[in-house]
Structures are given as C-alpha cells and as structure tokens.
Here is the input.
Amino acid sequence: MPRQHAGSYWSGRVPWGPAIVTIMAVILLAVFPAPLFPLAYAFQALCAQFPVVAVLTRHLPPVPISLLISLAALALARGGVAGSGQLIRTFRFNRRIANCARPLPARLARGESSLDLGGRIVCLGDPSLAAFCYGFVRPRVAITTGLLERLDDEELAAVLAHERHHLRRRDPIRALMIHAFSAAAFMFPVAPAVRLRLDARLELAADRAALTVASPGALAGALLTVLVGGEAAVVGATRLSATESRIAHLSGTPALPAIPVEATAASFGVLLVVGVATAALALPPDLIAMVCRS
Here is the structure.
C-alpha cells in the first residue's frame, strides 16, 4: 500500500510566527505606505473605468484598500498553493492505490452488500492496518488485508459504516477544502485549532453513523486496532483524526478539541491591527485626495 502523506493535523503548538510577521508588516506599511502606491494607482484607474467599484468600496481611499487587497491576495495565494499541492499529492496517491488492489475476500464482499456499497470498496493487499475513504469525483472505501484480518465481523461493519458516511458526504473533498482554508488563514494563530475541530466533527459524524450498525465496543475495538497501525493521513483520504475526541465520544463524555483562548485573542489582535492600520491610511489629506469618485 502506498504511504499516506503526513502534515494534515495540528501538533497543538500555537503558530505565533505568521501573526507576528503580519502585524509587523501591517504596522510598517501604515507608517511607510509607499510600497502600496503602485497598487493604489492601479485601483484608482480601475475606479475611473468602472465607477461601480468606487461605490462597492464606499469611497475608501485606494491606499487602505490596497493594503486589504494585498493581505487578501497573500491569503488566497497561500491557500491556493497549499490546496493545489495537496490535490496533486492526493491524485498521485489515489492512482497508486490501484497497484495494491486485490479481489474482494468473501467477508468484505458480504459487508459491501449489506451496507449497499456495491463497487465502492477496494481491498488493498498490504499488511498495514488502515481503512479510509478516498477520491473526489466518485469516492471509494479502501481497507487493507492486514486490517481485515484483525477485525471481527462487527468491528468490520463498524469500520465500513464509518467510511460509508465519509463516502456519502464526500468528506475527502471537505477535508481538502478545510486544509486549503486553514492554509489561507495562516495569519491567524487560531486557524490550526479550528481546522482540527472541523476534522473532529467529520470523524464524530462518521462514528455516529457507525453506531447505527455496530455497538460502541465494536467501534472502539476497531479504532484501537487501527491506532496500532500508526499510519499518517493524507488530505483527501478521510480516516483517523481527532482521536481523543473520538475516544471521549465513545466513552460517553463527548468533547470537541478545544480552541486555545490565547490563539483566539491573538487572531482578534491581528484583525484589530489591520483595522487600525486601514483607518490610519484613510486619514491623511494627501491620501484622501486619491479617493475614487463614482
């Protein structure tokens, strides 16, 4: 079985670096806005050609608008690069799965039939312990022969029902979008924690679906078995994530991953600095004179 790509989950450390760099850059541009002038002049020319742009921006001077456009463009570029990179790696991963495909064993064929997954299960000839949903256009469920041999019938049903939920909701593409949006929000320290919380919601929803066909003990046993495998996850192949929340849910004490207060406060701090800088750039008379007229 091809190795899955790591890097889609949060280590638990608040990423202060991007926020600090963003705050320093915004303050510097508020004090020395000259680098924003080329974009401001281009925006002013755009307003002259399309007056509706001035209305949409509420006649804010082009320089503060240029600051906001620059930050938005940076976020979109970061998210686009991260999303495209993961998309390429995921497509490569999905193609390589075909090389490990094996005919469905009788047990797996029965599970496929009972859960109405005809033609959507792939058995991978590999001793590792893994099961995941993959694919964007027509998602499929993959399970390794190593895991199949370790699960009893009820645990297998729990795993397949869990992955069926991912398949029906097209969670692989949801996971990719969450990753891309999190990358785009790299300036905000709270973004990785929010990503982990959203990942946990996907997994807990799939666990609840699994509990409709299997007991909590069977699902817990399957989860423990897969944890022993220690495989990393690939964005676009939805499987184990937010493990502590899943364990808490099965133990009867549901809890989603916490969002650190300090990361939330720092993220609001970034927004505050950007807001103050935007206001400051809109005040000087020489910059006000550049305002677009509709």
